[in-house]
């Protein structure tokens, strides 16, 4: 496989240069959530906070809908969105369930069946 070819993985959204450009403002907003003050500012007035970063109407609607798959489709980086997940009280198991079409409980059970659901050590 050449560097220009990518193997499609069912259920994944490829994050490349064009997607990074598409999601730049959105990801910048998510990165800002490293600060508790910024997380609180978003909680206090999400519309004003989204306006401050100039994210697209589609991205705003995905945030309002708490639709992580749509956020990814609109250029969201899962790494930056993990910062955003804190605001909604999501953890990576909840996000994993959303991404795979499973409930959180189903996703936890899947991880455990694969030997990845519990900390080993």
Describe this entry's structure for a reader.
By secondary structure, the chain is an all-alpha fold. The chain folds into 2 domains: about 15-90, Orthogonal Bundle (Protocatechuate 4,5-dioxygenase, Chain A); about 90-120, no CATH class. About 65% of the residues lie in helices and about 0% in strands. It has 9 helices and no strands. The protein is globular and about 45 Å long. The mean pLDDT is about 80.
Indicate the topology.
Elements: H1 17-22, H2 24-32, H3 36-44, H4 46-53, H5 57-65, H6 68-73, H7 78-88, H8 92-100, H9 104-113
Main sheet specs: none
What general outline do the C-alpha atoms trace?
globular
Query: What is the SS-derived class?
Result: mainly alpha
CATH architecture of the largest domain: Orthogonal Bundle
The rounded Rg comes to: 16 Å
Strand portion: under 5%
Overall average pLDDT: 81
The poorly predicted ranges are: none
How many domains is the backbone divided into?
2
What's the CATH C level of the largest domain?
Answer: Mainly Alpha
Find the CATH topology of the largest domain.
Protocatechuate 4,5-dioxygenase, Chain A
**Structure annotation, total helices:** 9
In CATH, the homologous superfamily of the largest domain goes by the name Dioxygenase LigAB, LigA subunit
Ends apart, CA distance between termini: 37 Å
Total strands: the figure is 0
Query: What are the secondary-structure elements, in order, as H or E?
Result: HHHHHHHHH
């Amino acid at each position: 496989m050449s560097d220009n070819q990518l193997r499609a993985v069912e259920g994944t959204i490829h994050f490349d240069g064009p997607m990074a450009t598409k999601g730049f403002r959105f990801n910048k907003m998510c990165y800002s959530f490293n600060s508790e003050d910024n997380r609180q500012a978003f909680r206090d007035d999400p519309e004003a906070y989204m306006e401050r970063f100039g994210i697209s109407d589609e991205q705003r609607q995905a945030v309002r809908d708490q639709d992580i798959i749509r956020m990814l489709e609109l250029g969201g980086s899962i790494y930056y969105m993990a910062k955003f997940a804190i605001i909604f009280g999501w953890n990576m198991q909840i996000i994993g369930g959303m991404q795979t079409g499973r409930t959180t409980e189903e996703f936890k059970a899947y991880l455990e069946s694969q030997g990845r659901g519990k900390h080993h050590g």
